[in-house]
Amino acid sequence: MNTSLKQMIQAKAKDLQPALVEIRRHIHENPELSFHEYETAEFVESYLQNKLGLTTTRLAKTGVVAVIEGTKPGNKVVGLRADMDALPIMEVNDGRPYRSKKEGVMHACGHDVHTTCLLGAATILQECRNEFGGKVKLVFQPGEEKLPGGASLMIEDGVLNNPKIDAMIGQHVMPQLPAGTLGFRKGLYMASTDEIYLTVKGKGGHGAMPHFNIDPVLIASHIVVALQQVVSRIANPAVPSVLSFGKVTANGATNVIPPEVKLEGTFRTLDENWRSEAHVRIEKIARGVAESMGGSIEIEIRRGYPFLKNDENLTDRCIEFARHYSEDTDIQNLDIWMAAEDFAYYSQQVPSCFYRLGVRNEEKGMINSVHHPAFDADESAIETGCAVLAWLAVNELEKG
């Protein structure tokens, strides 16, 4: 591996750090929800065009794509992806001078850090383009947090082509890991995700006269319990699966049995065949319970992101590259995680590696999980994040 290039990347990342912190804080203060990242996209475009002299393309309305071409011979193309959307969460980090300026919207999943790190990596790669061959495609995508997932729309709009991406690399913050630590997992990593919507219908009436009613609350309760056998008794124990219901709406009263109850939940797994079978089982069990108790049911299962699989060869190489980046960089082996990520769409199309960047700092109180209203990231990790993205890209290009 090119030691002088590594030292160049490390030096440039260190020099960029103060400016990148300001960029991250600007993005954090101005969050935008999924598929509404118009100001963020304009900010990214302006940076790429005016500071780096790159030509940008819009995909999926608020997605931004640019290509950096090395001057040395090489035909390989490596994609680097960052997501830009925020979440509908009220931030409670009142002590942070860069807290969200938009009420009820917050970068609670670190996408502000992702975008910042990719802008930093782009700056490094553009300044070092005489040191490598091939192309790096920068992919700033919208809507990771909302179905159908911005990645799927970017793919529909051709992000994997012109030039055709040979390998895709994505980075995501992880508050369980100390700032600057990296985490990798080969093979199956993250789950598919489907949304389940059930409307249980009965006959409402006075709570003191249940014999005149068909109680959808009772029916819904039996359905929630019965559906647990999908995971505990029907699923192969060797295949990770999760079925959870997080929202139950009855809208009755202490003495009022409502006419219907709505249930909302999620099903997740790491096997596509079982995923399809589970949908059938969920519907059959729920309908059977409802009808056996005199009610009826409407069922909607919205198919979400597929499972995320890290290409073993690419991930092996990325781990090797990361180990050579710095002796001080701690690298962890990750477990399977039943959360979902729309980066999975890329992993279904091209060899991909999705890894983690630690952002935890207990002394600063940065210990909360993603999607928490007090989530924050130790900004010292940005220097590592942007440099490692650039380092992985140039080394993967050399392997081409």
Describe what this molecule looks like in 3D.
The chain has helices spanning 3-29, 38-51, 111-127, 150-156, 216-227, 229-234, 272-292, 312-325, 344-347, 381-398, and strands at residues 56-59, 63-69, 72-83, 133-141, 167-178, 182-184, 187-190, 194-201, 205-206, 241-249, 256-257, 260-269, 296-303, 308-310, 331-333, 352-360. The chain has 400 residues and is α/β, with parallel strands linked by helices. It has two domains: 3-191 and 307-398, 3-Layer(aba) Sandwich (Aminopeptidase); 194-303, Alpha-Beta Plaits (2-Layer Sandwich), CATH 3.30.70. It has an eight-stranded mixed sheet, with helices on both faces. A hairpin with a 3-residue loop joins strand 1 and strand 2. Helix 8 (312-325) packs across helix 10. The longest helix has 27 residues, at 3-29. The radius of gyration is 24 Å and the shape is elongated. The two termini are 14 Å apart.
List keywords for this structure.
400 residues, alpha/beta, Aminopeptidase, Alpha-Beta Plaits, 2 domains, eight-stranded mixed beta sheet, four-stranded antiparallel beta sheet, 16 strands
Summarize the structure.
By secondary structure, this protein is α/β, with parallel strands linked by helices.
How many structural domains are formed by the residues?
Answer: 2
**What is the CATH architecture assignment of the largest domain?**
3-Layer(aba) Sandwich
Order of helices and strands: HHEEEHEHEEEEEHHEEEHEEHEHEH
CATH-level-4 superfamily name of the largest domain: Zn peptidases
